[in-house]
Amino acid sequence: MIEDFFKYAANLKSISRQGWVDKLSLENPESVADHTFSMAVIGMIISDLGNLNSEKIIKMILLHDLAESKVGDIVPDKMSIEEKEKLENHAFNEIIKTLPESIIPNYMGIWKDYQENNSKESQIVHQIDKLEMVLQAKIYQSQGHSKEKLEPFFESAKSSITHPKLKELFTKIIDE
Question: What is the CATH number of the domain that holds 87?
């Protein structure tokens, strides 16, 4: 059954990031797996620089969008936060059942921690999620997409990023 878990993870390579499709009409946007990989690299560096729990942060990043392999990438204006969370929790619970019992509690704990957003690690991961979105938006801008269409992504991240190092990186990315 563990191979089913791997298939769910691999399926993220074929799930497009819906915000780019909806707002920029991109035919070939980044995938959820692309986004997750980029976040993992950012998380690795930020957590190592800040002497944070790198293992927990990277695991959280790798798990945070896994439910999307079953439900797709649901953007905020498509359903309520509560509905989205319920749908994703159900999907995650189904996916996690494909793993050996011995590791399920750890991954469930990391998933719950991310959703509750109370720990230092979860707060960093939520902010890395926004920072990676800004980085991708700047890439799309450099490819000719209008800053006006990208502005909502920049504004969303600006109000969410509070960690000093991430805020510094946000400013540098935006000012490029």
Answer: 1.10.3210.10
